[in-house]
Amino acid sequence: xxxxxxxxxxxxxxxxxxxxxxxxxxxxxxPAIDVIPGMKEKMLLHAAPFVDWEHMCGPQKGSAIxxxxxEGWAKTPEEAIKLFxxxxxxxxxxxxxxxxxxxxxMVSPSMKVFVVENRKHGNRVYTHSKEETFAALRxxxxxxxxxxxxxxxxxxxxxxxxxxFRQAGGINLKKLVAGSLxxxxxxxxxxxxxxxxxxxxLMPHLFKAGVDRESLEAVAILFDHDEQWLVYPEMAFCKCIxxxxxxxxxSTLVTVMGRNGTYFGIRVSGLGDEWFSAPAPEVxxxxxxxxxxxxxxxxxxxxxxxxxxGIGAFAMAASxxxxxxxxxxxxxxxxxxxxxxxxxxxxxxxxENAGLPIxxxxxxxTPTGIDVLKVLEKGIYPMINxxxxxxxxxxxxxxxxxxTAPAECFKKAFARMVEKWNIE
Length: 424
Known about the structure:
Helices cover 38% and strands 20% of the residues. The protein is α+β, with helices and mostly antiparallel strands. The chain folds into 2 domains: 24-234, CATH 3.90.1710.10; 247-421, CATH 3.90.1700.10. The radius of gyration is 20 Å and the shape is globular. The N and C termini lie close together (8 Å).
């Protein structure tokens, strides 16, 4: 047993070192099928563990229909549904392909994705862009205006951004996230400062790259319209550092947390790419006028990678503006409550990321690297702040709130450790 403990400790030390040393840069945009490993025609990538058409939640089904219409695989929603029912389209988890799918999003082959490269360890991660704030494909909306906006993203905005990133020689995401934490962001549900910092750095390079006026206008409209548009590159930042610490034998580091409205799943460094899943939890929070808990879909999306990577709810102490959300779920609603939430997350993590300091905690680094063993020992489960989608496709976001990662996922992962590592 002592020998096993030593192996686990050494593995976790290595995992923690890789997490804080990682240097993710936003370097380009490209068609998903050209860069995402294993991406194929007639394939859609979704959030969290695998889920088939029959068991998908409403927003995911709507997103799949919209993606089929966008790709030209079907001319009507009915034709798209028939393709899914006949297994003519392949569904796979985005995480299995070094990529991410926010909320109920389906990443399709021709969509342009952000390319994020870890310049310390060499790994890359890919994710889609945010096309609209509330009524969007990722919430299951597939109306003509949504399909049109997806086309503008693919054909105008993302190519322009790619030119800017290449001209800049890449955007240092760790520097950007660190700066945003000094300005009131936490990196999941508040990305206002991060967006402003990126826009400030990127705009001169867009001009230097010779981006045409029409494309510049489209990019500027995106920046102006959605203050949260940078959330997906920030998610890719987190996945990039976590992938650098994946597949370390005997490490108990959680490398993925994801949910898709049906399942919530985690992956663990020392257990490879195996998923440990439980039913997706309900989200408790605030609702837009006219909606209640009865309208809400269960939690979904790969955005919980932010908490897995040490920001989001783990960095709530950096974001006083989000503190009041806690009052909706019995977590208080004061800034002190937000500070205490971050402090609890230190109890279940392997390290502190000194490169991501929190000013209100005397610049202590964010709690980083969820440890399965600490979670079970302390009985403290990771907190996640999240948007709330309507349970029916086509409606969109109806609120925001909190969830706690299900205990069952961690218990299943530990049971696998016992089996694999001969723990007695």
